[in-house]
Amino acid sequence: MSFEQLWSDLLPVGRADSGGYRRFSWTPADTECRSWFVDTARGLGLDVETDRNGNQWAWWGSGDDAVVTGSHLDSVPDGGAFDGPLGVVSSFAAVGALKARGVVPRRPLAVVNFVEEEGARFGVPCLGSRLLTGAVDPARARALRDPAGVTWAEAMDAAGLDAGGLGADPSRLARIGTFVELHVEQGRALVDTGAAVGVASAIWPHGRWRFEFAGAANHAGTTRLADRRDPMLTFAATVLGAREQAALAGALATFGRVTVEPNGTNAIASLVRAWLDSRAPESAVLDRVVEQITALAAERGDRDGVTVTVTAESETPIVEFDGGLRDSLAALVGASAPEGACSVVRADGTAPILPTGAGHDAGVLSAHVPTAMLFVRNPTGVSHAPDEHAGPDDCLAGVDALASVLEHLATR
Ligand code: HGY
Ligand code: MN
Ligand code: MN
Ligand code: MN
Q1: Which residues form the pocket of ligand 1, taking CB atoms under 6 Å from any ligand atom?
Q2: What residue stretch is flagged as signal peptide (predicted)?
């Protein structure tokens, strides 16, 4: 099965009129993605399993010390085609390439599709891998609600899976010897190096916080300014302050999701709910920035007669990927780069090594097993939007790199 064929089979699933993707967990688009996973795995002669948390696995062989690769198939609202699917499609294409060239693995190989990596429907990112590793309380996960009020448990049950068994899966985790996730690069670092494929060094600490600004609804035409308790004002001041504090600290702070009640043109809002996504190179910096934003929101709320409450939704500490694995992958990826092609490697022949501000299931797994990531160049540097891209030659370079990494790890 060629990369191109696999890619084009998956491409139409969940594509919105905007050209972006809406592949939210447990929706019909997700079910189609999951069926594609099963059909593709079976086509390659792999054994398919769904774990207690809804993650899908496709096994070549059985036993312990497995080499596992994969990513996720869900998307952000109007996301790009590559974030997640490039990793899953490349994993299947790499396994297909190893089979075609008669490689006999000495340990099992598996492809995984982790559910709800983006947290786009239920709020907590990397939920499938966090459940697997025990990083999320299953009772909390079951009760998470989507914007329509549907719980994770209800949605999973409606998709035909049993949410009753949710939770840590230590025996499955113990079977994983190494995890490697290939992902489209979500910035312009590789464009600047001129290389098609790079290796990850670290993931910035990051998290999500839910802010509620509670004021009082009232008439837009008759309520004197002095009598207003307008949460929009507090929210607006918080957005500007967050940007300022983050810029001063060398961090990032984004309010990209907001809901307003009652959402009427001629009524002062009663409630604004907004989600802060913040990331920084160091945990201490991240903590400080979020504290500053919380404090300035509260201070402004006092002036506006608005009550501000802040709830941490998810926090991910800094991830430093396994150094030995990272360096051996950089050497392998450098060596697999086609001569004179788009894959320019560094002077010592190794692929570039780069940190990222984006979160991944690999980051969650790295606390438990030796883990590495490969990034494929994204010429637009855009991600979480329809312009996200990776050129066909770079995608194939990614598959070649992943295939040589898997072969190396599985035949050691
Ligand atoms: O949001 C993120 O960092 C990732 O793309 N899931
Ligand atoms: Mn993403
Ligand atoms: Mn992703
Ligand atoms: Mn009226």
Answers
A1: 83, 117-118, 125, 358-359
A2: none
